[in-house]
Every structure is written in structure tokens, then in C-alpha cells.
Specification:
- The complex is a heterodimer.
- Chain A has a domain of 248 residues: MetI-like (MetI-like fold), CATH 1.10.3720.10.
- Chain A is an alpha+beta fold.
- In chain A, 59% of the residues lie in helices and 14% in strands.
- In chain A, a hairpin with a 5-residue loop joins strand 7 and strand 8.
- In chain A, helix 3 packs antiparallel against helix 4, helix 8 crosses helix 9 and helix 10 packs antiparallel against helix 11.
- In chain A, the strands form three sheets. In chain A, strands 6, 7, 8, 9, 10 and 11 form a six-stranded antiparallel beta sheet that branches. In chain A, strands 4-3-2-1-5 form a five-stranded antiparallel beta sheet, with no helix packed on it. A two-stranded antiparallel ribbon of chain A has the order 12-13.
- Chain B folds into three domains: 57 residues; 36 residues, no CATH class; 229 residues, MetI-like fold (Orthogonal Bundle), CATH 1.10.3720.10.
- The radius of gyration of chain B is 28 Å and the shape is flat.
- The chains are: A alpha+beta, B mainly alpha.
- Chains A and B meet through helix 1, helix 6, helix 7, helix 8 and helix 9 of A and helix 1, helix 4, helix 5, helix 6 and helix 7 of B.
């Protein structure tokens, strides 16, 4: 040992530059990870915050209103330009406008600018000038905004009444009618009420004056939401943000996956992963028990073990090819010929679907579960097995009462790692059953309730599709960020659970106590 | 219990019968599952066979069309992958797998070029210098990084990183130039610090406190880049590249793929390399340090040679992952089947081609079988690479046991 003073003097010179480069590569990796996660978090969450709407007056006197998206330097290095989301795609043909910063004369944020979210054409931005009810009453000026809010609330309750009427009164009657019941009269009165409700919802419309002096008439049934972001308090904005996040999680996609929510994709991902884990757990555990407890531990078993380990490294797309060739075309095609030949040539099981996707992913994650379970089994000391056998237990009893309970955390770890891998895997799904848009989730009230042959939506594929195949990528980007954030969060939570379980497992086996 | 001998023997026989039945079931199930897994390779091989030995319903593709350059064609590119327009027509089939294999290997090479130095540096640092507390936190963090789905990384690379790099090419270059001197400067400055500050920021925690320093370097690179561009490249790096070097600059290119896939591959290389380095028996490193070597010299002369098979297998596993990664290449590469040495041009990999084209290729057709051949290539390549890595690792473990036992 050198004296302390000598070691301090030696360190910088002696450790040399390599130590600093090595430390730098740790820092660089952490920085990259941090940058990726914070990019996703910031971009994914800020979209739901109601952005202020700017009224921009240009040097040439033209006006435009929109949310400022970003500002970039011009290519020649002369000044900068800004991108505004101006909406009103039905008027301008686009919903974006680039403006050179030097051409802007004045920017203000008047509180009376209204942002409308519509069923078609995306949002509309302008000043509310008039509201016309179905009976022809016209409200103009100051009173229009409260009248609009009241009328929209009324419309929402009418819509709820209509849905309730349809689901609780009409649909059961229709089913009874199909079964030969005599409900014609009740059905007729219910239909009349439905028509009355429908009529009460139609006819109203509002008029917006856009910033450049245009006029936009919007029927009220097209309006999803209205807000005046510049007039909102921070608390109102927080409420609106929460509502936006909730709608994103609970609604279906609109406008070719560029707006709306991702509920069907969440549902599809979770359902597919659940089916996969139901398939993979018993088979993986069975194979691991066979390899570790039953098979003769010779050269062949060792080779098989290495092969299984290596299958975890085979690219996922290869599993997708196998799933398509064997499950979809092979087994699915045969099933169609035997049981669904009435529907041919349109395939039932002979095309990608929920069942084949879960099977393919189960195969893909099988090595993960086998390896994790085997590690857990190998860690159990042989004395435990020998003790059980010496007390007269048969091998089955030894396995099921002593070995498997001790290996449970290892199995759980394996299954969770498998789930985390499957939730993020997209490439094989593109071959065996994921769909761009499947607004119907594969579970519903019709027999057999769970439709294994249906295509489904998936969070990962939704990201790919919205980001690369959508018409207006610019408009889809915020939702893609939010979807990516959601997917990463799901996977992080699953992985943290696995890490926690593994930690739990190692401390428990340190003490070697049963149960 | 002498009086209950007869019911006991019945029960015992029942138990033994149940035991035997369970053993048979487990054996059958286990062998079945493993056979199903191994069936993947068999299925691909069987489906590919008709390509080479036609059976009447399908025509064969000559080996020449797949691997050799086209003859007597005016086309300057002599290897072309273009099955959708040329199969089933009178034209010569342009189904060369060479550009796809090229794209796959090029993407993997760039990814490894970025991932391997980062991963090995990080592994060396965490095995030798890092404080145990930070190390026990860093490992799960990098495991989480490994679990990030490819589709998210590919999206960020293709739609955020690629346009940014296209606009800020000079920034990236400046960052590359500044990175190594900047880190060395950090080391030099650190050694000039008063001892109390050095104790507050020890080398063991450098992985954390260098992050703000790197941010500082990034902003310095951003500030310096216009100056660098004006001084060395006549004001416009991209123009300079295109005119002076004749390099096309595509938005989504091999470098972007390399950066994204390097990010994705780095954690798995790190984990294996770290295992190999920290698995080297302590007696070796302690002996070297007792003879007066610094920790870095110990690493370079003693630990690294001892662990080199493990490092090799880590790199191999990384290569296997990089070759098979689909979504990142699909989203960040532009998918143009080019064969150039230009790292700023697009590429198209085998895996991405399968993902794009297989849903449209009807079952049993020539196109379908060609894509299955591509899948078989991927399967064989990754399987061989992984087996090699596994064998090397097994041998290494035996060596450590011997070395550790001798100490």
C-alpha cells in the first residue's frame, strides 16, 4: 500500500486518459437514455395542455390565428420561421402555416378566440359570431358563447338519452322480435321517441369569423368540444389536460389515426399479451422441468439447452415468418377447409388474427420463460429434493410440493420478462394479425364473446402506422409521442416488477426458507 | 402400521402410477415444446427447398440470379432487388439478395461501431472504478434501456433524430470532434482540483457527474459548429459533402440507423461484457496492483486478456441482435436497396424487407419463397453467431474456475 498522499498524486497521471473515456461512455449512455425518456415525456404530455392561440398580424396586413408549434432557423441562415397550427382545413386546404419571423408585425392573444374540435376536418379556430338554434333563433355577439356552452351541454345529454334508449329499449325489443315475440307496438313508440330525439339534435349551427375575415358555418352535431384557451385559468387548463389524457386513454382513434385516443390499441395489446402468457406459462414451465428434473443430463440435453438459449437470440421477424407460414397458412388454412368452408374464399382463420398472434408471440417468448425457470430450478439445492425423496415422497410429490413452490418467483420473473418483451414486439405482429384500424375490440356480447379470429390493434403498430403511413404526419406526431410514452411506461412497469421479483427471489434463497 | 398393509400398498401403487404418468406427461410435453421451437429452422429449410429443386408447380431461381451480378445489362447497379415488378413478367428476374445482405451487414456494422466502444468503456468503468452503490443502480437502469421497444427507438430515430441531424450535420461533426478531447480535459481539470472537491466528485461517480459536463460539451459544439463549417467546409457542410466528395445525403441513412441501433444493442453488450470483466478472479487484479500497476494498467494488461473470450461473445451477441432488429431499420433507414459505401445514404435490410413484403406475397409463390430464404439466412446467421458466443462463454467459465481455484 502506498501512502495516501502518494496515491492522490498518482491517480490522474497513473490512471491515464482511458479511465476518463470509460467514465465518459457511461455518462454518454445515461445521457442518451435520459434524453429519449424526457423527449417522450415532455412531447407526449404537453399535447394535452391547451396551448394559447396567437393572433398574428403580418407586415402586409394579413392576419392569422393559430397555436405556435415550433420555430426553426431558415436554411440560408437569415432569420427564423415559425410554424402555426391554424386549423380550418376545409377553408385553407391545410392546417399548418409557416411564417417568417421577420414578416410578423404583431402577436397578441385575445381571449375571445375559440378553438372547435370537430368530427371532420380537425379543429377550427376563429371568433364566435353567431349561434343559430334549430328553430331559427339567432344569438349574436357577447351572448353567443354562454348560449353555445349551454346548447352543447344540452346536446350531450340528448345524445346520452338517445344511446340509452337504443341500448336499453330498442335493441332488446329487436332481439325479442327475432325470437318471435309480439313487440311491434312498443318498438314503434320507441322508434318515434328516437326520431324525436334525433330531430331535437339537428339543425343548430354556429358561425365563426376566421382571422383573415373568412366565415365558417359549422353544424352543431359536428362539434365535439369548444374552448377559449386564452381565457382559461391555469386550473381550467389543468382540468382540460386531465380530460384530454383521459379521452386519449378511453376513446377510439379518429381521422385516420391522427386524432382521438388509443383505447382499442390498449385493449388489443393487453388482451393479446394475456392470451400469450396463458399459453406460454404452462409450456415453458413444462419444458424447463423436463430439461432440469426429468431428462438424463447428458451431452444431448446440454446441446438442447444451448439451442433453446440461442433461440432467444433469433430475430423476432423469423418467428413472425414461422407464424405466418405454419399457423396462418398451414393450420388456419386447414381449419377453414374443415369448418368454415361456407365462408371461403374469404378466410376465417386462414388470415392473421388474435389467436395466431398470441401463439407466435408465445413461441417467441418460450425461450425466455424456459431459461428463467431453469435458472430458478438449478438454484434449489439438491438437499431439498433428496430430503423430500428420503421422507418417502414420489418424484411428482417432490416436484409439486417442494421444488415448484420454491421456483415460483423465478417462473414469475420469466413470465413478466416474456410479457415485457411481447408488449414491445411489433415486427412479427405485422405478419400475423395486427390491424391498422379495428374499431371493434375482439371481445363483445355476441357468442362466443372472445373472437380469436379477429384482427386487433396494437400500441406498437399504432406508433408505426400513425408515424409513417398517416396522411398528415405533422398532425399525428403528438399522439404518436403520447402512444410511445404509454408503451414505454407499460414496459418499464413490467420490467421493474421483474427486477423486484428477482431481488426478492435472491434474498429469499439466501435464507433458504420454504414459503 | 402393520394392520393397514393392504390399503397402504394399494395407495402406494396408486401414487407410483400417478408419478409414472406425470413423468411420461412431462417428458412428452417437454420434448414437444422443444421440438416445436426447433421446428422453426426445419420449416424454413423445407419451404425454401423448391426454390432450388423445382417440383413442377413452382419454378426455380438460379443461384446466379440470387448471388451474382446481372450480366450484359445496361443498368449501372448490377445487383438489384425488385421482385414485385419483375417476377411473373418476361423481364429477367431482379431478385439479388446481395443488396439486402449488404444493407443488413452495413447497418449492423455501424451499430456495433457505436455500441461496442460505448459498452466496453462502460463495462470497464463499472467493473473497475465505479462505486458499488452506483453500480448496483446502473445495471437495472441499463436493463430497462434494453427493454425499450424497437418501435419507439425507431420512431424517435426516423422522425426526430434524422431530420435534426440533417439540419445540424455540422453540430454532430463538432460533437464527435469535441467528445474525446472534452473528456480528457475533464480528467485534466479534475486532477487540478483541490483534494476536497476531488473527494466530493470521486472517479467512482464520474458516470453521473460527467452528464452535465457532456451537456456543456454539446452546447459548446452547437456554438462552435457554424465557425467550424465556415472554416473547414466553405460554409455549408452538406454542400461540401455533395460536391467535393460526391456523397448523397439522405435524411434517413446508415448513420442514423447505426446510432439508433447502437443505442438499442449497447445494453446487452454491456451486460455480458461486464459479467465477463467482473468474473475475472480478483486474485489476478490484486496481484497486478500489488506489483505496482495502476487500475487502468491492470485492466489493460491483465483483466482484459483474461476476459477477452467473454468480450468476444458479448460482441457476437450484439451482432446477432443488430442483424435481426427489424423495426429500427424499417423506420430509420429509408428502405432503399442501395449498395454504397456512403454512410449518409439509405439502405434496406433483410428483416425490413420481410416485414414490408411478406404480407403482400401470396403463400407458395416464388416471391414468398424468396422472402423465406431471407428469413432462413437470418435464422442461420444468428443461430451460428449465438452458438459460437455460448460455446466461448462456457469455455471461459471453466477457465475462471481453474484460475480462481489456483489462487
Amino acid at each position: 500500500m502506498r501512502p495516501v498522499s502518494g496515491s492522490r498524486a498518482r491517480l490522474p497521471r497513473g490512471e491515464g486518459p482511458g479511465a476518463w473515456l470509460a467514465a465518459g461512455s457511461v455518462a454518454l449512455s445515461l445521457l442518451a437514455l435520459l434524453a429519449l425518456l424526457s423527449l417522450l415525456a415532455v412531447r407526449g404530455l404537453e399535447h394535452f395542455w391547451p396551448a394559447p392561440v396567437a393572433l398574428v398580424v403580418l407586415e402586409d396586413g394579413r392576419q392569422l390565428a393559430g397555436e405556435r408549434v415550433r420555430e426553426v432557423p431558415l436554411p440560408e441562415g437569415t432569420g427564423r420561421e415559425r410554424l402555426y397550427r391554424t386549423g380550418n382545413r376545409d377553408l385553407y386546404g391545410t392546417r399548418w402555416e409557416w411564417v417568417a419571423v421577420s414578416a410578423i408585425a404583431e402577436v397578441s392573444h385575445p381571449p375571445d378566440l375559440v378553438v372547435l374540435e370537430r368530427r371532420r376536418w380537425g379543429e377550427a379556430i376563429g371568433r364566435l359570431t353567431a349561434l343559430e338554434s334549430e328553430t331559427g333563433e339567432r344569438v349574436e355577439g357577447e351572448g353567443a358563447w354562454p348560449a353555445l356552452e349551454a346548447r352543447l351541454a344540452e346536446l350531450t345529454s340528448l345524445r346520452q338519452a338517445r344511446d340509452a334508449l337504443r341500448d336499453e329499449v330498442i335493441l332488446p325489443r329487436v332481439r325479442a322480435l327475432e325470437e318471435g315475440g309480439d313487440v311491434d307496438r312498443e318498438l314503434a313508440t320507441a322508434n318515434a321517441r328516437l326520431r324525436a330525439l334525433q330531430a331535437a339534435m339537428e339543425g343548430g349551427r354556429l358561425t365563426l369569423a376566421t382571422a383573415d375575415g373568412g366565415r365558417l358555418a359549422v353544424p352543431l352535431e359536428q362539434v365535439l368540444r369548444v374552448r377559449r384557451p386564452n381565457a382559461m385559468s391555469p386550473f381550467d387548463k389543468l382540468v382540460a389536460w386531465g380530460e384530454g389524457v383521459w379521452r386519449f386513454l378511453s376513446e377510439g382513434p379518429r381521422a385516420a389515426n391522427t386524432a382521438g385516443g388509443v383505447w382499442p390499441a390498449i385493449f388489443g395489446t393487453v388482451l393479446m399479451v394475456m392470451l400469450m402468457s396463458i399459453l406460454v406459462t404452462p409450456f415453458g414451465v413444462l419444458a424447463a422441468i423436463y430439461l432440469n428434473e426429468v431428462a438424463h443430463q447428458g451431452r444431448l440435453t446440454r446441446l438442447v439447452r444451448i439451442a433453446v438459449r440461442n433461440l432467444a437470440g433469433v430475430p423476432s421477424i423469423v418467428y413472425g415468418v414461422f407464424g405466418l407460414g405454419v399457423f396462418v397458412y398451414g393450420i388456419g388454412g386447414t381449419l377453414d377447409e374443415w369448418f368454415f368452408d361456407a365462408a371461403l374464399p374469404s378466410p376465417t382463420f386462414g388470415t392473421g388474427g388474435l389467436l395466431w398472434a398470441s401463439l407466435t408471440l408465445a413461441l417467441l417468448t418460450l425461450p425466455v420463460v424456459i431459461v428463467a425457470t431453469e435458472e430458478g430450478l438449478a438454484r434449489i439445492p439438491d438437499q431439498q429434493r433428496e430430503g423430500a425423496l428420503a421422507l418417502g415422497a414420489t418424484r411428482l410429490e417432490m416436484l409439486s410440493r417442494v421444488v415448484l413452490p420454491m421456483a415460483t418467483p423465478a417462473m414469475l420473473t420469466g413470465v413478466i420478462l416474456a410479457v415485457a418483451r411481447a408488449a414491445g414486439e411489433v415486427a412479427p405482429l405485422m405478419l400475423v394479425g395486427v390491424a391498422k384500424l379495428a374499431p371493434q375490440v375482439p371481445v363483445d356480447g355476441d357468442f362466443p364473446f372472445l373472437h380469436l379470429d379477429r384482427k386487433f390493434m396494437h400500441l406498437g403498430y399504432h406508433i408505426f402506422d400513425a408515424a409513417f403511413h398517416g396522411g398528415d404526419v405533422q398532425a399525428a406526431m403528438p399522439l404518436v409521442y403520447a402512444t410511445a410514452l404509454l408503451l414505454v411506461l407499460v414496459i418499464l412497469v413490467l420490467n421493474l416488477t421483474a427486477i423486484f421479483l428477482r431481488h426478492h427471489l435472491s434474498t429469499r434463497h439466501g435464507a433458504l426458507t420454504r414459503r | 402400521m402393520p394392520d393397514s398393509s393392504s390399503p397402504t400398498s394399494v395407495r402406494r401403487r396408486l401414487r407410483q402410477g400417478r408419478d409414472r404418468l406425470a413423468t411420461v406427461l412431462v417428458t412428452a410435453g417437454g420434448i414437444g415444446v422443444i421440438a416445436a421451437l426447433l421446428a422453426i429452422g426445419v420449416f424454413l429449410a423445407v419451404e425454401v427447398v423448391p426454390l432450388f429443386w423445382p417440383t413442377g408447380t413452382t419454378q426455380a431461381v438460379s443461384q446466379q440470379a440470387l448471388w451474382l451480378p446481372m450480366e450484359g445489362s445496361a443498368d449501372p447497379a448490377r445487383y438489384r432487388w425488385d421482385p414485385t415488378t419483375t417476377l411473373g413478367t418476361d423481364e429477367a428476374a431482379r431478385v439479388s439478395l446481395v443488396p439486402l445482405a449488404w444493407g443488413t451487414l452495413e447497418a449492423a456494422a455501424w451499430a456495433l461501431l457505436i455500441a461496442v466502444p460505448l459498452a466496453l468503456g462502460a463495462a470497464a468503468h463499472s467493473a473497475l472504478f465505479m462505486s458499488p452503490r452506483l453500480r448496483s443502480r446502473l445495471k437495472p437502469t441499463l436493463e430497462l434501456m434494453e427493454a425499450l421497444p424497437g418501435v419507439v427507438i425507431g420512431f424517435v430515430a426516423g422522425l426526430v433524430l434524422a431530420p435534426w441531424v440533417e439540419r445540424h450535420l455540422a453540430d454532430v461533426l463538432a460533437m464527435l470532434v469535441l467528445l474525446v478531447p472534452g473528456l480528457l480535459l475533464a480528467g485534466g481539470l479534475w486532477s487540478r482540483l483541490p483534494p476536497r472537491l476531488q473527494q466530493a466528485m470521486p472517479l467512482g461517480w464520474a458516470g453521473l457527474w460527467l452528464v452535465p459536463w457532456l451537456l456543456l460539451l454539446l452546447s459548446a459544439a452547437h456554438a462552435l459548429s457554424p465557425w467550424l463549417e465556415a472554416w473547414a467546409f466553405g460554409g455549408d457542410l452538406r454542400h461540401w459533402l455533395e460536391v467535393r466528395l460526391g456523397l448523397d445525403v439522405a435524411v434517413r441513412n446508415a448513420i442514423i440507423v447505426g446510432m439508433a441501433m447502437g443505442f438499442a444493442v449497447m445494453p446487452s453488450v454491456y451486460a455480458l461484457a461486464e459479467d465477463a470483466l467482473s468474473g475475472v478472479p480478483r486474485s489476478l487484479a490484486e496481484g497486478a496492483q500489488a506489483l505496482g500497476a495502476t487500475r487502468w494498467q491492470t485492466l489493460w494488461r491483465v483483466v482484459l486478456p483474461a476476459a477477452s473470450p467473454g468480450i468476444f461473445s458479448a460482441v457476437m451477441i450484439g451482432a446477432g441482435r443488430a442483424v435481426g432488429e427489424t423495426m429500427i431499420v424499417l423506420m430509420a433507414s429509408g428502405n432503399a436497396a442501395l449498395m454504397t459505401w456512403n454512410p449518409l445514404d439509405g439502405l434496406r435490410s433483410l428483416a425490413a424487407t420481410i416485414a414490408i413484403e411478406l404480407p403482400e406475397a401470396g403463400p407458395g409463390g416464388l416471391h414468398y419463397r424468396l422472402l423465406l430464404l431471407a428469413a432462413l439466412l437470418l435464422f442461420v446467421f444468428t443461430f451460428l453467431v449465438n452458438t459460437l458466443a455460448e460455446l466461448v462463454r462456457t469455455r471461459l467459465r471453466r477457465r475462471y474456475r481453474r484460475l480462481g481455484g489456483g489462487a
